[in-house]
């Protein structure tokens, strides 16, 4: 069970508009993305279908989060990884 943050890249980071991520390995195509504050409050959750390796996926945020540091957690079968995201 991989928990390997090197598999995930987030861009831009720091972000001013929107959050994009890439997953660098072959995975099941459906990925749950959870964006939360540093103290664990979930501010966005979505399931992204048909995620392709090394393709850019954009979170469908209804509004840009307030400036700060967040955790983007990506979960799928065989994957559980978190990466820090800075919002400016």
What is the averaged pLDDT score?
88
C-alpha geometry:
globular
Structural class: mainly beta
Strand order of the largest sheet: 4-3-6-7
List segments where confidence is low: pLDDT < 50 over at least 5 consecutive residues.
none
* Helical proportion, percent range: under 10%
**DSSP summary, beta strand count:** 7
Strand residue content: over 45%
The radius of gyration is 12 Å
Tally of separate helices: 0
Describe the structure.
- By secondary structure, the protein is mainly β.
- The chain is built from no helices and seven strands.
- The model has no long low-confidence stretch (mean pLDDT 88).
- It has strands at residues 8-11, 20-23, 31-37, 42-48, 57-58, 68-76, 79-87.
- The chain is globular and about 30 Å long.
- The strands form two sheets. It has a four-stranded antiparallel beta sheet with strand order 4-3-6-7, with no helix packed on it. Strands 1-2-5 form a three-stranded antiparallel beta sheet, with no helix packed on it.
- 0% of the residues lie in helices and 48% in strands.
Compile the SSE list and pairings.
Elements: E1 8-11, E2 20-23, E3 31-37, E4 42-48, E5 57-58, E6 68-76, E7 79-87
List keywords for this structure.
mainly beta; globular; three-stranded antiparallel β-sheet; single chain
Question: Quick gist of this model?
Answer:
The chain has 88 residues and is mostly beta strands. 0% of the residues lie in helices and 48% in strands.
